[in-house]
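Ticket #4471: structure export looks truncated?
Reporter: QA, pipeline team
Priority: medium

Steps to reproduce: submit the single chain below to the structure queue and open the exported record.
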Amino acid sequence: MVDIKEEYPRQLGFFQKALESERLSHAYIFYGPKGEKKKDFAKYLSQYFQCQERKGDSPCGKCHHCRLASSGTFVDTHMIDKGDEHILIDDIREAQRGINLSRSKGEWKFLIINNAEKLTNEACEALLKTLEEPPAKSIIILTAGDKSGMPKTILSRAQSVYFYEDFSATDGEEGGNAIAICRDLLSEKDFLKLIRAKELAEKEEPQKDIDMMIWVLRNLALNTQGIGELGDFEKDSWGDLEKSLPYGRIAKVLEKLLKVESALESNASKRIFFENLFIS
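Actual output as written to the record:
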């Protein structure tokens, strides 16, 4: 499991404050670059909430509840994880039976659905009933690489939390290249965008480039909102452009990048996807 406190301190702090102020939502969607980190965070969060000796931003790891959670046998946490297979209505119904039961040991009940973009239409309709009338003291977490294809009825009933790939240790050449691509992506010059589209489409594995661009734009977006601060290298690479880009424009490009990241898994032309992203 990833080091949650080190890798996602902002997200962990968000949930810690929400728990302390009793302002928790009943459902969340964790979305961002594909991988197991969103699921790992969801499991960590359930253990943190259930811990009997919780201190600060960490579960104790030693109490009875923590030991059960670490072994995967905590009865108040239900997980649906079918990898790349579709999540069927029977999977949701079985999970609903568990989450609708009275809490057995912990203060909270959790339902974690990994790769929620794999939910069938029938499964989404079944899940919607639980999202509309959630059991008391329950939290439903959906993880997804790309939430854009999920039904709006699901998205509107869950709070979105974005998870990013951290490239802070990336060497200057790679980081500078990612910023250069993003500068062109945010520009008004279509010919520059087409050149970048061709370069990326010709790469066998453009996934890392996309993930780095997401990380770069995320930092820039946070900086424009006064939440985060760019490093010296990033400031030098962005130059004056950093201060002139509106948040809405950056956010729109971020959403497009997430869609392209998902589209890369299909058999369609990479060139078409990149050109559509860069010039639309």
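Status: closed, not a bug. The export was complete when the record was re-opened. Leaving a note from the reviewer for reference: The chain is about 55% helix and 10% strand.
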